[in-house]
Design brief:
The protein is about 25% helix and about 30% strand. It is built from one helix and five strands; from the N terminus they run H-E-E-E-E-E. The strands form two sheets. A three-stranded antiparallel sheet has the order 1-2-5, with no helix packed on it. Strands 3-4 form a two-stranded parallel ribbon. A hairpin with a 2-residue loop joins strand 1 and strand 2. The longest helix has 21 residues. It is elongated and about 75 Å long.
Length: about 90
Amino acid sequence: MKNKVRLAFIIFVGLLANSALLAQISQPIASPPGSVTSTVGLTEIQIDYFRPKMKGRKIFGEGEGYLLPYGVMWRTGANSGSKITLATM
C-alpha cells in the first residue's frame, strides 16, 4: 500500500512540474515584427520586417557614444531578414 501511495505521489509531482514548465511567461521578443502594405498601380506591395529596439542607444554618429559611424552597413532587427511580397490585383 505504501508503494502505491509513493508512486501516486511521484506521478503527481511529475505532472505538477511538467505543467509548471509549460506555463512559462512569454516575454516580448527583442525586435518586434512590423509590416507595411501599399498598392502601386495594379500591384500590391507588402514588406514584413522586424523593428530594432534602440533601448536608449544611439546607433549612427561620430564619436564614442555611438554603435556605428555613418556610412557603415547595419542589419536592423534580430530575428530574420525582411520579406517583400508583390501581388497583382
